[in-house]
Amino acid sequence: MRLFAATIATETNTFSPLPSGINAFMETGFIRPGEYPKDAPLGYDAPLWAARQRAAVEGLTIIEGSCFFAEPAGVTNRRDYEFMRDEILGQLEAALPIDGVLLGLHGAMVAFDYDDVEGDIIERVRALVGPKCVIGVELDPHCHLTVKRVTYADVIVLYKEYPHTDIVECGEHLVDIVLKAIRGQVKPVMSLFDCQQLDWYPTALPPMRDFVDWVKALEREEGVLSISIGHGFPLADVPEMGGRVLVVMDKDKAKGDALATKIGKEFTSMRGKHWKHHISLDDGIASALEFNEGRVVIADPADNAGGGAPSDNTTILRRLMELQVEDAAVGPIWDPIAVRLCFDAGLGAEFPLRFGGKTGPCSGTPIDATATVIGLKRDCLQNFSGTQGPLGDCAAVRAGGVEVVLNTTRTQGLGLEVFRNVGVDPLAKKILVVKSALHFMAEYGPIADKAIFIRSDGLNNRPISEYPYTRVNRPIWPLDTETSPRLLV
């Protein structure tokens, strides 16, 4: 059995001032065949990783295509997207004939002139491999579950958890279904229900925790191959954006339609009940300072690189310094120039440093301080749910009573390595400020006695209803009060 696997992935915030080009992919993930790491998956390559684990045992031949992924930002340059896409398609064509294709995508990538990047890729793959080849796709739940993708793929599986702690598990699930389909043990058919709603759905908290557990129980019923809840990515102004339910059945399309409709109606009944605990800057910091029962982790979701923000906003840090807060650490702040200056100055140096606040108005103003370099390390990594991601070169500086981690590869704070790489012990701090929306909770939640979510003046600081959408299909809640959820496929 011959399987081809490849990845192209990023999450596009169409409101972000940061255009995505080939350099963004080369900085984060630009891996050619034969260059994949052997020790841990990178994230979006989970289908390839899972297929590798089964290859030796089951006699599979895995043809590895390229793996491209970039930190979320704005719309991708058309030329660069087509270059990466065509490289993967060329590798696939050279590998024919193929029994199955495994694509590790994101699902919310947008390029100039391509609202539905993943639909474009899947359609072109189908044209190459023909109708009998089984195409399996793994997507992030913050994706756009378009009709085109469901039309041209055989199986689509989304992670169920947010934070995304089940990326590898869902990649293994996808591979299992694809192999069974190739062997004729199952015949996947998909049903897609449009809930016509926009929101954020953290799955560790009610009501989503109970909802996801219920969906997992339904997935164990006879004939059900997979159930996925597409949260949608509200920071993208594209037509088919929003919450959708995808059911993959073995042969029984009618049962899949009924199940997708049942789950979709339950999902729509939960509108407005999801977690919204973001508080103001001063209230958040005051709450942290007043808490005397342990460690406080403060999140800065508005400046989350994982949502396409620059991750160089200085507002929370500046306020901590103004209040002369001690025993606090902040990171990661994206500032390649400041990192270079710290390396040039050397460990232990004390010198005037301007850092942060560089990208635009949503970044705040730069910090000007006499900084002491307390940590330096090249090529840093951070862990997240069994995967590893790059932080780039990192520098830690002390400015006032606050220790700040600066990095060169724009990314959100996921693992404790953000601080530990450069000698800052997160367990020794009373207050940790992390540039992240929710994913940080997988690693920081266990060490936090209290978590506070501050709404800073970063890029992603508005309620969904206040974004200037012009292209999203209407009606859709909460932009519209009257909607008509329905089965699409």
From TrEMBL:
Keywords: Hydrolase, Metal-binding, Metalloprotease, Protease. The keyword S-adenosyl-L-methionine does not apply. This is Microcystinase C. Involved in peptidolytic degradation of cyclic heptapeptide hepatotoxin microcystin (MC). GO terms for biological process: proteolysis. Its cofactor is Zn(2+). Binds 1 zinc ion per subunit. Residues 298-471 form the Microcystin LR degradation protein MlrC C-terminal domain. Residues 2-288 form the Microcystin LR degradation protein MlrC N-terminal domain. Belongs to the peptidase M81 family. InterPro entries: MlrC, MlrC_C, MlrC_N. The lineage of its organism: Bacteria, Pseudomonadati, Pseudomonadota, Alphaproteobacteria, Hyphomicrobiales. One of its GO terms (molecular function) is metal ion binding. It comes from the Bacteria.
